[in-house]
Specification:
two-stranded antiparallel sheet; alpha/beta; 11 helices; Spore Coat Polysaccharide Biosynthesis Protein SpsA, Chain A
Length: 309
């Protein structure tokens, strides 16, 4: 069965960005001039997944509203003849058919995915985390869908990270040889085990799970039986570990696609700023002015430079 639906968990509290996220959902923080969540929905739509479910919470109404039409604002821009901005705000409402469901309590990523069971049904589906942005020039999700099409089961996005950072991620044990690329760019590996945020000296590898998954509907039954794990939350990594152990016996293999492209972690303050600067510098309407200023600022010593009177 082909994948048609995408689930985007967006119920987190965004505590790392307080006080900005006291009243503004972290998913609505702007990356240049678009909220981060729009990049993620656009990625799903680009991969052919135009049925998108947002898993939100009580404080995330602004996220849902962003993908709706805004008649009053559209009318004001039409009266001004501002067709450029009019096209931009209409684009977000036309990316996909966006639905939402609420996660009543913050019980972990696994629980957020389980909240999507009623909408997804008995179909494979993709999960895209809202604070992981994948550059549109790097078709990770498209390749993951190709791996699912070839092997069935579930597929996880992986990325090599420095060894001192493995304790921040779910980490995979993979077969030492790849099964070969199912797509065009990235290595595909068979996952044998997974562990959530292991101590550095206990990590089985430096292959970390990043925020892209293509999941078999079998994950729902496993999640229903998965007890709270690290942080007293229901961990998606634990459910995928169960599926990886079942493997071929249950017809539910778990593969990984080792990503080597451009990824922006907007859940971290420094990485968020790096993403904004990099994407802005690459924009033809902004970069021509921003990049020379940035070069001058850095060459002058950056924040150490005396700004003068």
């Amino acid at each position: 069965m082909s994948v048609k639906k995408a689930v985007i968990p967006a119920a987190g509290l965004g505590t790392r960005f307080l006080p900005a996220t006291k009243s503004l959902p972290k998913e609505m923080l702007p990356v240049v001039d678009r909220p981060a969540i729009e990049y993620v929905v656009e990625e799903a739509s680009r991969a052919g997944l135009r049925d998108v479910l947002l898993v939100t919470s009580r404080t995330k109404k602004a996220v849902e509203d962003h993908f709706d039409r805004e008649a009053e604002l559209e009318a004001a821009l039409e009266r001004k003849g501002d067709t450029t901005r009019l096209g931009r705000i209409r684009a977000s409402a036309e990316l996909a058919e966006v639905h939402s469901v609420r996660q009543q309590a913050p019980r972990g990523l696994g629980h957020a995915v389980l909240c999507a069971a009623g909408h997804v049904g008995d179909e494979p589906f993709a999960v895209l985390l809202g604070d992981d942005l994948i550059d549109e020039r790097d078709p990770l999700l498209v390749e993951m869908l190709a791996v699912r099409e070839r092997f069935g089961g579930s597929v996880v996005g992986l990325m090599e990270v420095p060894e001192d950072l493995v304790s921040l991620y779910g980490v995979a044990t993979v077969d030492p040889t790849a099964v070969g690329p199912a797509g065009e760019r990235y290595q595909t590996v068979r996952i044998r085990d997974l562990v959530e945020k292991p101590p550095v000296d206990e990590a089985p590898s430096n292959l970390a799970i990043i925020g892209r998954y293509v999941l078999s509907p079998a994950v729902f039954d496993v999640l229903r039986q998965t007890p709270p794990g690290r942080g007293n939350e229901i961990q998606l990594t634990d459910a995928l570990r169960t599926l990886a152990h079942l493997g071929d016996d249950a017809g539910e293999p778990v593969h990984g696609v080792v990503f080597t492209g451009r990824r922006y972690d907007t859940g971290d303050r420094v990485d968020y700023l790096k993403a904004v600067i990099r994407l802005a510098c690459e924009r033809p309407d902004i970069g021509g002015e921003l990049y020379p200023w940035l070069e001058e600022y850095v060459s002058a010593g950056g924040p150490k430079a005396d700004p003068g009177p």
